[in-house]
Amino acid sequence: MVQSGVKKVVLAYSGGLDTSVILKWLQTEYGCEVVTFTADLGQGEELEPARKKAELLGIKPENIFVEDLREEFVRDYVFPMFRANALYEGIYLLGTSIARPLIAKKQIEIAEKTGADAVSHGATGKGNDQVRFELGYYALKPDIKIIAPWREWDLTSRTKLIAFAEAHQIPIAKDKRGDAPFSVDANLLHSSSEGKVLEDPNVEPESIVFQRTLSPEEAPDKATTIEVGFEKGDAVSIDGKKLSPASLLTQLNALGKANGIGRIDLVENRFVGMKSRGIYETPGGTILYQAHRAIESVTLDRGAAHLKDEVMPRYAELIYNGFWFSPEREMLQALIDKSQEFVDGTVRLKLYKGNVIVTGRSSPNSLYSQDLVTFEDDQGAYDQKDAAGFIKLNALRLRTLAMRKRKASKK
Questions:
Q1: Catalytic residue flag (residue 100)
Q2: Which entry of 100, 132, 329, 361 is annotated as an active-site residue?
Q3: What is the CATH number of domain 8-71+95-179?
Q4: Residue 194: closest CA among 252, 129, 259
Q5: What are the boundaries of each domain within the chain?
Q6: Which fold has domain 184-362?
Q7: Which of 4, 76, 158, 183 is catalytic?
Q8: What is the pLDDT of residues 51-66, one digit of tens each?
Q9: Torsion of CA 186, 187, 191, 193, to 10 degrees
Q10: Active-site annotation holds for 237
Q11: What is the pLDDT confidence band of residue 174, given thresholds at 50, 70 and 90?
């Protein structure tokens, strides 16, 4: 048994094989009281079995926490991130990354509530999630003790995990006795599939990998047209019907799924240093991303829009690397949120065989002026002769450089 001094630990608990083994391992190796926390982030699984399994493993009812966090997740984490149009390495909509700070926050809150002196998670020592969870823990409770079993124990294979489970009478689903062909993480924003049969980036994934979308080939031959309404940069309605954040994303997910939208096959650079291949499905998020950029195109000033695009990669990297609670992320969020003051209106979209096609955008705060851009008579709204001076001023340094080159070539 580990001589750690830990008295009570809050475990992020899914009810699956890995976290059930961790639960028993904490009891046997640390000799501490375990509190379980199971979050409903819209992963699409029934959570009551996790409660019952925790009880079966000897956890007191008052130490079992199961919380529906879907609205908080979308309202306070997904939507702020989408105001930034955040993409990691130009393509990844950060579906796993953005869920980790909320789980960490809730674990710390439960630790405070129950008097726990430690927290634990089931992330491995090779991935990003260990970093995301633990940076969150330390940011919110700097003196917290952290137990990361995958960095400590010798249960280094599925066979050893199952043997431990059997020795401690932990129920094992029949399909868990074999080696799962790949691992899956899911929430209301996305699902990700990684590892094992997906490790070779040159092998096309089989159809069984995809959890959230039809293939574009199987999607209907007829486009689906929708309108998404925005207020201050956040989506608030679909086809004129007001919806809560989680309800809106759920409906967009259904629309995206039916039209084969949101699949990506990505090789990314993990924060810990290695490259990894993942299959990500973000149907509703992909629609939301395109719609948000479209409404910004008519409501954001050029300077503001370009500044947002400049800081976005830094903002996305902070979320990917686990720095949601850092001062620099909060500073960037303040800048981003300021830019959204007039991002109101509606965007019309066609969803068709994996594509999100913008067909219209309107806003009461639009900066788009037909009087200025028209090819017809603009009635004096814009004097085209002014462009000559504008061009000459901008060309001044280029002309100066050209004259220097001409002189140099004559020597």
A1: yes
A2: 100
A3: 3.40.50.620
A4: 129
A5: 8-71+95-179, 184-362
A6: Argininosuccinate synthetase, chain A, domain 2 (3.90.1260)
A7: 183
A8: 999 999 999 999 999 9
A9: -20
A10: no
A11: low
